[in-house]
């Protein structure tokens, strides 16, 4: 079984892996790299796009699905597997991150998209792909690809201890591709959530909270215990995430429904509200947060950033000027959670995605099986 590391290895963004055995090649995710240009914006394909037998998308964040139109433009015409929740959120992501020409000409047709539910097994030639809920977003999945008695588990993005989303346990495997976005951070998510709630409580007259449309937005809503406003266009998508069958923990569904119902609607161009305001996206690159960040900066409104900040993004520049604070909202595994995932999977060989090489090397003390010498453009073979 051969793996081609097409994006996200030794770097953050354009996450993509191709798995090949017995003449069948399956591609897992097709993301873009925010802040990059040219070829570095897209996955580094291991071969012609028309030689890929199947594409499976883990969820609809830009670093996992943003290159879909480009892949089709390069000649991919095979099946695209995703959950119903990912299918619903995908157009918004592509509208923000796909090139306009690709979006207009190569948006995948409905008959190319095949829906599945977390927990289903997909058959792609000689490859069997088991899926499970990732705990990262509604409809997000991890994938386990098996062939010839060997199995690789691709974690995609996951949150083992999410208070909002349910996650299925990973199976034993020969190779585990872990979400290493947080590197050596050991601070539990519950602690971060309390820190965010405290920060918001200290700014009762208004503050701005940029966040991705899916996943972290619900985590933030669950953490806040004060009234808040949302960008009006988010309401329908947030409602659909909350109502997604079996995606949320039972304890979170009722709480989030009540908080969404009580949220105040805000639109770009209106005066900023005298309350916490949640807008998307989290980096200020696209969506209403770009205009909201500019308005908050001009008005002197406090801003709290809670996720990845690509260098040069509006949110990153705001923080560098001292105009925004940053507290990580836990939407990826901590170091301790990744160690537990590795041990429960049988302590297999490990690759880390969505993390720079220098940080992966620091993680080796806790996960000795972590292979840090591999990066985007290289391959790995499970004998």
TrEMBL record:
Domain Metallo-beta-lactamase: 13-203
Record InterPro entries: MBL (IPR050698), Metallo-B-lactamas (IPR001279)
Domain of life of the organism encoding this protein: Bacteria
Annotated protein name in UniProt: MBL fold metallo-hydrolase
Source species of the chain: Pseudohoeflea coraliihabitans
Cross-referenced Pfam families: Lactamase_B_2
SMART domains xrefs: Lactamase_B
């Amino acid at each position: 079984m051969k793996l081609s590391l097409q994006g996200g290895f030794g770097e953050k963004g354009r996450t993509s892996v191709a798995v090949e055995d017995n003449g069948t090649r399956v591609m897992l995710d097709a993301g873009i790299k925010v802040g990059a240009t040219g070829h570095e914006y897209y996955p580094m394909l291991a071969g012609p796009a028309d030689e890929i037998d199947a594409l499976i998308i883990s969820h609809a964040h830009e670093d996992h699905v943003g290159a879909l139109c480009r892949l089709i433009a390069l000649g991919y015409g095979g099946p695209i597997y995703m959950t119903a929740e990912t299918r619903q959120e995908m157009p918004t992501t592509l509208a923000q991150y796909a090139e306009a020409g690709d979006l207009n000409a190569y948006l995948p047709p409905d008959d190319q998209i095949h829906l599945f539910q977390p927990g289903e097994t997909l058959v792609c030639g000689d490859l069997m792909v088991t899926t499970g809920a990732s705990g990262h977003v509604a409809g997000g999945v991890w994938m386990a690809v098996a062939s010839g008695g060997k199995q690789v588990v691709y974690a995609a993005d996951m949150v083992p201890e999410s208070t909002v989303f349910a996650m299925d346990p990973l199976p034993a495997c020969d190779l585990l591709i872990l979400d290493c976005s947080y590197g050596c951070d050991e601070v539990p998510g519950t602690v971060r959530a309390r820190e965010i709630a405290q920060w918001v409580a200290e700014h009762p007259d208004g503050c701005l909270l940029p966040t991705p449309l899916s996943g972290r937005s619900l985590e933030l809503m669950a953490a806040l215990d004060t009234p808040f406003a949302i960008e009006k266009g988010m309401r329908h998508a947030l409602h659909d995430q909350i109502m997604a069958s079996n995606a949320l923990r039972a304890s979170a569904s009722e709480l989030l429904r009540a908080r969404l119902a009580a949220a105040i609607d805000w639109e770009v161009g209106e005066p900023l509200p005298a309350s916490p305001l949640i807008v998307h996206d989290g980096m200020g690159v696209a969506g209403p947060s770009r205009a909201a960040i500019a308005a908050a900066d001009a008005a002197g409104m406090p801003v709290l950033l809670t996720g990845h900040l690509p260098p040069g993004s509006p949110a990153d520049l705001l923080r560098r000027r001292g105009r925004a604070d940053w507290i990580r909202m836990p939407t990826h595994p901590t170091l301790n959670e990744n160690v537990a995932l590795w041990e429960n999977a049988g302590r297999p060989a490990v690759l880390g995605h969505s993390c720079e090489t220098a940080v992966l090397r620091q993680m080796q003390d806790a996960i000795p099986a972590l292979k840090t010498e591999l990066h985007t453009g290289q391959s790995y073979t499970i004998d």
